[in-house]
Design brief:
Strand order of the largest sheet of chain A: 5-2-1-9-21-20
Number of strands of chain A: 25
Number of helices of chain A: 12
Largest sheet of chain A: 6 strands, mixed
Shape of chain A: globular
Helix content of chain A: 25-40%
Radius of gyration of chain A: 23 Å
Strand content of chain A: 15-25%
Oligomer: homodimer
Largest interface: A-B, 81 and 80 residues
């Protein structure tokens, strides 16, 4: 029996597990901290009340239940002992012959971890519902207050980071203010909300062409979003943000800037780059450990273009497929081939019917690009039971401008104040 | 202008607001702590991962946005000054000519508030997702552990209270173990889970006939649920429950027993019954304050049968309609008529295709009763955008035994430990 341990149930880990599912004499264990696989590209829709968490997340366990040789354990890997071929989890040791690390990345606050409290990032369902709670609560507070000063602060939304996530969040807030909420309030006019997208660099969407980025900026302006480039944030607190000598009072600040790989690579004394990503060989293995692979956002793969591959879903999926195949081949005594990423283009969406798509030299924008974006995202939502339901939900939102999931759900479920000393049962 | 203040956006409050919506020279303010109206009768489906929160909850604000004379404020009423005709909210004072209290009820732990931590009740979305988290996490922990003792404890589910909610929860856990999860685990057999429903009284479902209650007990047994009657809980802690000299180790305990009205009535020195419900006159007003009404679960109305009306959705809805009409009539100088509840029967559901229905002398059980249950619940889900989507979701679950919302979502969204001294922005 060859024991394969996969750490992480994102796009890379799931594709590796599926590629090894049903393979003879292979026993797969997948460990993830959470019980669900997340369709990250649509996470901003949960944060913006367009979709429910269950529309874009499914239990890892049930997605893999068809493979009798795959075992799923919810838990956290604390450390790795590569020479002993053992991973140490909170619930005990897990031995392996092959190890596949696909732990992903989290946000980086560039050394200002204290900013997280005031400016949540968007990587998990927990963060998405927290962002939803903050955005909707800001409108509620604005409706309640009698101070014009406070009202302005409540109706100011600052998004830090001009990449695809920042653009999607800013576009959705703009749209929500202008259409969805426009008639719901009596004391305030939601269309007066200020939405500001801050980008530290000279232009937003640096991974896209200048032409596409300029198109996006115009689309955002039509939704009432102002894009401030060359605007690096120097401070974030409960009151708002500072950009050098400038100061904006904002009740809601969202973080869509830097990214940092999972710390497990660095903690294992593997070679990492500045963002904590593990430097991998052409076959995605770690130098000196041909049985240990690092995939997806956690890996720094530079052998194709000289630059690291971006932390996107297509890279992670292709790498998962690749490593599963490599292990199958190796068990059949075939030699390893280097990994090759096939770039199928990139896209970003702005509001309810606009997007930009770039496939090689082909550049598209507007409604047709948005249709392509829609078809691609629905296609890849496979494995999720309710692809049809999500499409219906979207169709409904599209026609009515409604957002069905506008719920403010608090963190505390208890009615009584809990006694301070005891831990609730897990 | 006649100012009407409604406290609470449940069935009673919403129906009162709708009945006063668009009425000339009336200005309505509805205050609720949460931003959403909840379709309580289906809340157990959220706790049991069958539906998403957004399927059974909708923003109060958008449900009432069509009425230009209705204003919605999210917040909490701290106290009432009936003689000054003013309610004191956290955000300021709200004056009124008419006051409609419809604040509902919460669970009562019979003087053992410390039990709440170990045995959550089911009244809010927060509690429903907490119950979902606990139930699903218990299966995960059972799969991880190597101790047979611990495994047994993780796979034991105790539900306290043999009313409709307890029956629905127990039936759903039994069904989930037997069908939904049966193939998802490798180390445990979910069908071995112990599900125990505890009822302090001599039989469960005392509001139904003995015949229907016996039918339900047999249905529950087929789903692996044991019903223990005459079993009053004497202690609940992190390890399990005690029933007198008996002790059951259980990682998951759910509370579906006592109920207690919102404390606002008692705090205002109004006459209340043992459960904190405000004793009301035949027209639902409070003695000495003909302009103050109490409705729904918060009211104790005994003028029809001698016993208080039960805390159900039909009672709350009819009372909401009634008070709106009373105020409209009074503004047109018509005399008050006493409230009369029209009993249309009662029902409860067990698992995926069984229910009991009692309408007067008519008693039904089994699949036909379940179809009636389904039609009635879908009919009353009006005002929720996605009635069709919920039906589709159910149809899908019904055919596949899947439960789409099996997500464990944690309370903490931060990655970093927050600094202890500062409050997160609201």
């Amino acid at each position: 029996m060859t024991r394969v341990l996969i750490v992480g149930g994102g796009f890379a880990g799931m594709n590796a597990a599926k590629g090894l599912g049903g393979v003879k004499d292979v026993e797969v264990t997948l460990v993830d901290r959470s019980n669900h696989h997340l369709f990250q590209p649509l996470l901003y829709q949960v944060a913006m009340a367009g979709l429910s968490p269950a529309d874009i997340a499914a239990p890892i366990r049930s997605m893999l239940s068809g493979y009798r040789n795959v075992r799923v354990l919810q838990g956290e890997i604390r450390s790795l002992e590569l020479n002993r071929k053992v991973a140490v989890a909170e619930f005990g040791e897990v031995p392996f012959d092959y190890l596949i690390l696909a732990c992903g990345a989290k946000h980086s606050y560039f050394g200002h971890d204290e900013w997280e409290e005031y400016a949540p990032g968007l990587k998990s369902l927990e963060q998405a519902t927290e962002i939803r709670r903050r955005v909707l609560s800001a409108y509620e507070a604005a409706e309640r207050t009698t101070s014009a000063e406070d009202r302005k602060r409540y109706l100011t939304f600052v998004i830090v980071g001009g990449g695809p996530t920042g653009v999607e969040l800013a576009g959705a807030i703009g749209e929500m203010s202008r259409f969805t909420l426009a008639k719901d309030f009596r004391n305030i006019d939601p269309t007066q909300a200020r939405v500001i997208l801050l980008e530290a660099g000279p232009r937003m969407l640096p991974m896209f062409s200048e032409q596409s980025a300029a198109k996006v900026a115009r689309d955002l302006e039509q939704l009432g979003v102002q894009v401030w480039t060359s605007s690096a944030v120097t401070k974030i607190d409960a009151d708002g943000v500072e950009i050098g000598a400038e100061r904006i009072r904002a009740a809601t600040v969202l973080w869509a800037a830097g990214v940092q790989a999972s710390p497990l690579g660095k903690a294992t004394a593997l070679e990492v780059d500045r963002q904590g990503r593990v430097v991998v060989e052409p076959d995605l293995s770690v130098k000196g450990h041909p049985n240990v692979f690092v995939l997806g956002d956690q890996a720094c793969f530079t052998h194709q273009t000289g630059k690291p591959l971006p932390g996107t879903a297509p890279v992670a999926m292709q790498q998962g497929h690749y490593v599963a195949r490599l292990i199958r081949d190796e068990l059949a005594n075939k030699a390893r081939q280097p990994f090759k990423f096939v770039d199928k283009g990139q896209m970003a969406t702005i509001g309810r019917s606009r997007a930009i798509v770039e496939i090689g030299r082909l550049k598209m924008a507007g409604f047709v690009a948005w249709l392509i974006w829609l078809v691609v995202h629905i296609y890849y939502l496979t494995g999720f039971k309710n692809r049809l339901l999500v499409v219906l939900q979207w169709a409904w939102s599209y026609l009515t401008f409604h957002r069905g999931a506008r719920l403010i759900v608090n963190k505390e479920w208890r009615l009584q104040t809990p006694p301070p000393s005891s831990d609730p049962p897990k």
